[in-house]
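Handout, tutorial session.
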Amino acid sequence: MKGMYGVVQLSLLVGAWGWEYKTKRNPAIPLDVVDKLQDETMPKVQAWLDKQHKAGKAKNCTLENAAVRQEWSDMTVEARQEYVRAVLCLQKKPPRAPKDKVPGSLNRFDDFVATHMTQAGELHGPTNLFPAHRYFIYVYEKALREECGYKGYQPYMNYDRYVADPFSSLLFDGSTASMSGNGELAPYNGIPQPFPRPYDRIPPDQGGGCVATGPFKDMVVSLGPKGSVVRNIPANPQRDGLGSNPRCLRRDVNRFSVAGARANYTHHLITQHNDVDSFYNRYLGQPQLKNDPNPWGVHNAGHYLIGGDPGGDFYCSPGDPLFYFHHGMLDRVWWIWQMQDPEKRINAVPGQTMPGGHNHGRKRQTAKPKNVLDSIIDLGWTAGPLRLEEMNDQLGGYGGEMCYIYV
């Protein structure tokens, strides 16, 4: 049966440095160049942790007890179904966002969407883009575990696995152990991009309409739209998009987009961009790669794999549950990049030496403190304020609470 694969204990690195992954991968799916790079990087991860321990830091975080975030298609059917149940549970919990500010938040899941909408500038400027989304995903994962009894951790999507045939993949096949399928065909003009023609938009694919299969086919999207790319979405009763606007979940699982996030692009991003500003700009597709048919940048290319409403809306995109898979992958990419030279990269923050750098946010961030590591990330009703530095190291950050790896 599809997805009912056998499991094998990874022992690729055992003998070289005496440690092995405690979770399994799907043996039917070959490793790509980024998977292999991550495996080769694990000795550096261990060395970094050893140094932290000797300095009295990250005392309770080891590779043996670290939480493990897996790629969706490496998880068992039961584990995937448990995750789906937890997301559906969160969508039934009462909201905590203040009703006077977010009347359209119908449940706890919507609370996170509202946070992304109202904190767009703080979440997306160069200084905060990486750590703020790490924080955002982490507290979402905590909500799934603490409020809905989920026993696992936030999965991610390895973009390369969805380039050739995403529709029959374990992520999009529409089964009870999937994150639902594509939307029905509803033509639209594609997704605008900041490049000259003919690369000024990502072409539409075969969806764009309501999702009709899988666990989220009856999901109600309430907040937004605020920056939709698909047609015929009813306007929100409030200009800020925070009113209640019930409608279906729409998707365009877009192969034209994800082609720009193949493993070769990600591998090049990690291995050929040694300073954080170069890494950040290339991550966002800046400057445009000449003569490249898929110049979107890994971030946008992965993001619009799940285009539609609200997944293709810059502000409301966490309204598609797959948003967290996308930013889980981006968090993984940042982590692998950091671990190539953790001494120099853990606390490297983009935007400090590039006054003309690309700003992914729609608003400017608040004024910076003298030490950028003292910048505050505040997710409002979703999670309280903390110093940016607390989110730079996933192995011992957040006052020692955070401790996870990707496999």
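The second record follows below. Compare its token runs with those of the first.
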Amino acid sequence: MDHDHSHHDHSMHGAASMPGMGEEQMRCSMNMLFTWDYRNVCVVFRQWQITSELSLFFTLLGIVALVAGYEALREGIRRYEAATTKRAESVPRDPPEHADEPDPDPESQSEAGAVAENTPLFLRSGQNRDDITSRAHAIKAVLYGVQNFYAFMIMLIFMTYNGWIMIAVSIGAALGYFIFGKRTTAIKDTACH
């Protein structure tokens, strides 16, 4: 039995008619230079591909919303930090290590008593400033990680080097700052977004 297949044509002449092959399935366009061409641009993922003017329009709207959402996240973190600082300041300090020794500063005793009286009962039971600040710090560390992941994803979106997408990122940042950044300065404190 002869197994020589050299006479068979293994080319893909009919590839365009096969599902998932040919012109119908367009490859992601990866540009390392600035461009305005939007056709076949993949935004971060292969599944997020711009194939028409309509998909470009919805992509740009989505990017504006994503970047504005980043500014909302930043504002939420700022508010959380302010609330935990305020809460920690409202809780009385730990009692001195040597509780039987008198505090040399009688004024601090009266302040501690006033704070203890003004602190809601549910905050007094078993909580002290150190407990609150260490829990808040752990939560802030997680939020910091989420914020950095978000910022780097925005950076990757920007790095498509597509002018339309870059403009959408900038508009989203401006819109997000306009809506959520009323209490902050316009100066950025991070290098990446």
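Points raised in discussion: The chain has a mean pLDDT of 76.
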